[in-house]
Amino acid sequence: MTTTTLPTELATGTYVIDASHSEAAFTVRHAGIAKVRGTVAITEGTITVGEDGVASVTATLDPTTVDTRDANRDGHLKSADFFEVETYPTWSFVSTSVEHDGDDWVVTGDLTIHGVTKQVRLETEFNGTATDPFGNARAGFSATTEISRKEFGLTWNAALETGGVLVADKVKIGLEISAIRQA
């Protein structure tokens, strides 16, 4: 990956993730035949942009907000079988490196879920900047990664009569981020 100059429209400074306009989504295969999708709220985060590009990214997520459009499943995910939200009420991401090539970025960092920290690589796209009707300078990003839920201690499963298991190990994560540049 060749590091190039910062996209001209992305100004240096600190950007605060706008939780109401950002989303952390996940997809996991269910029963080997379908995909279940859900979201988890991003409660806070920052993106710091230095003269030579993005210098750091941090985010905190709230697993008590998990939403798969099924209250029973959401309750099971919050239980000791999965996220143990009473014991582990937050998830976090802290970048360790950021590389860019034009408008594409790879943000590598430590993701902590269920009390377990693993390094992940977020394939990140810079979506541009805009000024909202309130005068805020915003920057937008989309990012994806795939994790093994077992690596985070999330091992609950059920065998299927036809073979295989109820919940796949691989989880695809997608992020849509809108961040506001601080004065």
TrEMBL record:
Which Gene3D superfamilies does this chain map to? Lipid/polyisoprenoid-binding, YceI-like (2.40.128.110)
Name of the molecule in the record: Polyisoprenoid-binding protein
- Write down the SMART domains for this protein, in alphabetical order: YceI
The UniProt family comment states: Belongs to the UPF0312 family.
Q: Which residues form the Lipid/polyisoprenoid-binding YceI-like domain?
A: 14-180
Q: Pfam families annotated for this entry?
A: YceI
Coiled-coil segments, which residues? none
InterPro entries, per database record: Lipid/polyisoprenoid-bd_YceI, TTHA0802/YceI-like_sf
TM region positions: none
